Amino acid sequence: MVNIRRNKYLKKVIRFLSILLGLELIAISVSMFFDPHKIAAGGATGIAILVKELWNTPLSMTLLVFNIFMWILTMIFLDKIAAAKITFGSIVLPIFLAITPNYMIIKNPLLSDIIGSIIFGFGLSILYRLGSSAGGTTVPPMILNKYFRIRKANSLFVIDGIVCLGNIFVSGFEHFFLAILSVGISTIVLNYIQTGIDKKLVVYVMSEQHLDTIKNKLELELQASSTVFDVRGGHSNDQKEMLMLVTDTQNYGTVLDNIFEIDTEAFVLADSVAEVHNGRF
Questions:
Q1: In this structure, what DSSP letter does residue 120 have?
Q2: In this predicted model, which residue has the larger pLDDT, 145 or 107?
Q3: What is the mean pLDDT of residues 241-252?
Q4: Interaxial angle between packed helices 252-262 and 211-222, expressed in degrees from 0 to 180 and rounded to the nearest 10
Q5: Distance, CA of 88 to CA of 201 (rounded, Å)
Q6: Distance between alpha carbon 179 and the CA centroid of its chain, in Å?
Q7: Helix or strand or coil: residue 204?
């Protein structure tokens, strides 16, 4: 029992440190690779860079104010669960931006843009894998998806495009193209590490004795419905049940944690799907 508690505590510590690592990687990419060359590569951090160039406002201050506004919108138009997921990152990322040195490591803008984009993509993928978020411009796509069924990837692409266009008026066309390149590289890195920003995962679960408990816990934690299939064992020929759940990619880590917390021997199979229409997931 002591070892089980110790392992759970260790997992929580590792998860917490991993989220901090993801947020710090994003802060490093902005402070040391994007901002020194005035590259506003989409998102809330890109908006902060544009505001800094126009009015010399600190990146951390602009990002904090913007994230607080997004958090308020989340509470109004979404729910407390969504607000809880973005709260930590919305506060910690501006703090990391404030304490991370704003220093030009690479003088070549193109090389700095490429390396910064890779680091940014790695940081974002860590947050998605752990079911966390840095808040920012991820909130409007969630609202648009809920009320108008607009795909989150599409609306996020439009928002990033608008931020990138801001480079033209603030720094010129060269920075605009660097910003577009950055968004593309970061997306490729994220897609490679995860399965895609807007793709969903279909998760199949089999448990000898705890399937109902797993189903109820997943529905309670994620507020997502599921489907139970009657299946037959290929070797034993015994009748069994299999749970199917569709979830966002960034929730996959949470799904696994909830399943293995109940049954460490549960059989889990996951596959990516391009689109899901209707239903609760």
A1: H
A2: 107
A3: 85
A4: 140
A5: 25
A6: 20
A7: strand
Q: Provide the angle, in degrees to the nearest 10, between the axes of the packed helices 59-77 and 43-55.
A: 130
User: Rounded to two decimals, what is the model's pTM?
Assistant: 0.73
Do the beta carbons of residue 67 and residue 26 sit within 8 Å? no
Instruction: List, edge to edge, every strand of the sheet that includes 200-206.
Output: 227-232, 239-248, 200-206, 267-273
**Euclidean distance between CA atoms 29 and 118, whole angstroms:** 8
What is the per-residue pLDDT for 174?
A: 95
Dig out the tokens for 88 from the structure: 């930590």
Residue ranges of domains in the chain, CATH in brackets: 2-193 (no CATH), 200-273 (3.30.70.120)
> What is the C-alpha radius of gyration for the chain, rounded to an integer number of angstroms?
21
Helix (H) or strand (E) holding 271: strand 267-273
> Cα–Cα distance between 194 and 186 in angstroms, integer?
12
Element (H, E) at 31: none
Q: Rounded to 10 degrees, what is the CA torsion of 69, 59, 173, 141? A: -30
What share of the chain in percent tops pLDDT 90? 51
Most confident residue range from 80-84, 132-136, 243-247: 243-247
Are the C-beta atoms of 271 and 200 separated by less than 8 Å? no
Phi, psi of 57 (to 5 degrees): -90, 135
- Tokens 């696994």 belong to residue: 256
Q: What is the pLDDT of residue 99?
A: 96
Residues 6+ apart with CB under 8 A from 152: 141, 142, 144, 145, 197, 198
Question: What average pLDDT does the structure give for the chain?
Answer: 88
CA nearest neighbour of 41 among 185, 196, 189: 185
